[in-house]
Each structure stands twice: as structure tokens, then as C-alpha cells.
């Protein structure tokens, strides 16, 4: 029996597991992730050393729980959240806090960049507040001293691999946007045009290639793993798609964790408005990450005064209630949006409220609103590829909820298939490690051997017809409310006409207190 240490650094938690070569998780430990420091200017930062501390703590727990299995570890693979930049100097020290996937401070600068960059370059149109090029240009403009010392840019899982092995490396999937910006197109080079040196890119490895052996001198119990290989792996979405068995032509995937990610996998590259086309090493994905997902459920529970530490039980209780005949529409853009709109100024809305609506109606509206966004992405991807997805492989915490699975199947009109593993990211990381070790000839073989299906949800024709009507109204609501969202955000800026309302509310509260 072979054992690998698989880790999944997510947006809100860090999970580590000891996985055997049948795909079974033999021991597992989860730790809440460090909270990002978010501010009103759109900043969102995390100290990268906090992620290293989580890895060490998780390994301490695993070694205590299953000492014999920990000693049997043959390799390590870590997948992790992407669109998060860690800035290192020439000695490998972190220059500042990491900018997380939520950071929108570069929004205005991204607009100026797009106007200045060569429009013929295929990556120019995709430069926005979430693009690493815009983040780097912001750093160059706002923190020139830090930028002047920048020697290497890493993603979170790359930083952990670096701390384990001493080698700075990444993979072409996680670094796709920056590599695209670095690539020359008819003499145009976006990095150079933005004043960003290409030398900050680390070495590029395939996800199943070895970064290096674990170095000596690490804190216990990692010291006991010295010499064991660490495989490069990739971002958490790519690994989870592998863990769902969806890394196959014609399949769609939907990962619903803190945020929602949906895409369709094809053999040839295709492009669609607002979607990311990423080379997935022999296959191509068309889709990408949103800013919304299961986090909207946590928001709803907090709004209703429910226990958001027991999300599954609470949402089940809400969905079990009586629903009103007239449904609500929910636009799920609570933090702006990435795919497919790339607009940090989008805002959420509940449309159609009446006096009889209650918590159950709100719960269904939230789940259906996220599923409507799924359908927008799915329709654009399928139209570009020229074929319907055969099925949607559904994973992440939300996949445990059969009601949400059925809603997605009915609203998208495609079978939704939930894999047996409740941790597709961990299983995907383990598959990467076993493939790298030579246990399987390819990722395809490893998926075939280790991924099993738990449940399949077929679209119900009657509900699908009703949801077609709801989806049409959802799209009309988007079109009507997008301009209002942008005006609200602009008006609430420091010099905007609505800026004083928060201060006025504080003063009013003081009067009531007196």
C-alpha cells in the first residue's frame, strides 16, 4: 500500500489528508484558513506565512492521529486557491502580504492598461482588476520600493512547495494568465509594455512533475519527510476537476466551495465572451471562477440569524419549509463578479419581494440565483465549443445538498453527477502524486481507477420548463440592474453624493444612544 500526503489550500480552509493508492482517505485534518484583511478601497491581503503555519499544524495533527501512515508517506502534492499573488525578493523572502483573489484595487488602473496595451494581443481584453498583470502594475505604481525588490511571483501552493523544497516553481495552468501576458504576439509583449520584467516568472513544471525533494531542517513532523518528492500540482479547481473524474472531453464541471467555478472541457481551444480559455495540458477548459458560491449561503444564514457553523443543517431546515407560489429572483453578485462579467462594481439584489415571502423563499432564491449564473457560463461555453456537455460533475461542499444538485440539473438542463469523494481537491492532489510516482501511466488512467460516482441527478422536464421562464427573468433583471449597481458603487465613493450616508447613520445611532 502506498500513501501520499495531499493538501488543498482553499479560500477559507486548509485541508490535508493521507490518501492510499485506492483513493481512500485514511486520515484527514481541516483547519480554518487565515481571514483576509479586506478594506473599503478593495484591498484583500493575507500573510503568506500564515499558510505555511497551517501546513505545519495540519501535519502535526495527522502525525498524531495516524503515526504509522504518516511515516509511510511517499510523496506530497498541494493544490491551492489561485489568482492570489505572493511577492518574493531575491533571497526568497516575502516582500509584503499576498494579494488575494478578492482584491480589486487595480480596477481603475486595469482600465487604463487596456487602453494603453496593444488591442491585437489576445490577452489584452482580459486585463481587469483580477488579472495578475494589473495587480503587478498597481504594485509598480503604488509601492515602487516593494516592486523594485521583486524577484519572483508565486501562487499560494507554489509558496508552500518552495518552503518545503527550496525551489521556486509553478505550473502553466495556475500561471496561464501571466504566461499569456508574457507571450509575444506579432511583436507585442504585454509584460514589457506594462513595465513588468519577465524574470519574475518562476520555472514552469507540469502538475505531475517533481519540484524537488523535501529539504532537511524543517519543523517537526515535516523533518521526518526529508527526501520525499513534492509534485508541482496546480490550482484547486484543476485538481478538483481531476478528483471528480471530469478531466475528459465533453464533460462540464462545477466546483462549489467558497466561490463557484464552472467550465466545459474540450479537445480544442475555443473562446467566448467573459470566459477563460486555459490549456489544461492536452485538454482545454472554457469557463472559470466566479466571486459567488456557497459563500452566499453563509451570508444568508448570517442575515437570518442562523448558525453559519452548521451550514448543511440550517439550509436543509430552510428548504424544508413552505414556498410561496411567486418565486424571488436573486442576483448573487455580493462581491462584484469575475466570470463571466469581470466587473467588481456588480452588486446583488433580491427582486420581487412581497409581504408573504419568508426565509424558505430566500433560501430557494439564493440557490437558484447561483444556478442561473452557472447556466449563463454553461450556455456561453457550449455555444463556443459547438456541443452540449454530456454531464456536469459537481463537487465541493454544496454538492452534499441534493436539493441544490437537483436545482442545478433542472435549471441547466444537464445531468448533474456527484462523485463519491467528498474531497475532490484532496483526491485530485493524490491522483497527481500517484501519477508522478508512476503508480499510474497517466492522469486519465488514475481518474478511471480512483474516481467513483455516488449519485446522478437527471433534469426533470416539467421543472426545467418552469426554470426556463425564471432564467429569462433573471437575465432581464441583470440587464436592468447592472447600471444601478455601478451608479451605487460610484456614488458611495469618498467624494460621491452617497458617501455621507454611513457617517449620518453613525450620528443617528449616537442620538438614539443618548
Automatic annotation (TrEMBL):
**Annotated GO MF terms:** kinase activity
Q: Does the keyword Transferase apply?
A: yes
Domain spans labelled Carbohydrate kinase FGGY N-terminal: 4-243
Member of which family?
Answer: Belongs to the FGGY kinase family.
Entry keyword annotation includes Cell division: no
Database matches in InterPro entries: ATPase_NBD, Carb_kinase_FGGY, Carb_kinase_FGGY_CS, FGGY_C, FGGY_Carb_Kinase, FGGY_N
Q: Which PANTHER family match?
A: SUGAR KINASE (PTHR43095), XYLULOSE KINASE (PTHR43095:SF5)
Tell me which domain of life the UniProt entry assigns to the organism this sequence originates from. Answer: Bacteria
Keywords from UniProt, A to Z, are: Kinase, Transferase
Question: What range(s) does the Carbohydrate kinase FGGY C-terminal domain occupy?
Answer: 252-435
Q: What is this protein called?
A: FGGY-family carbohydrate kinase
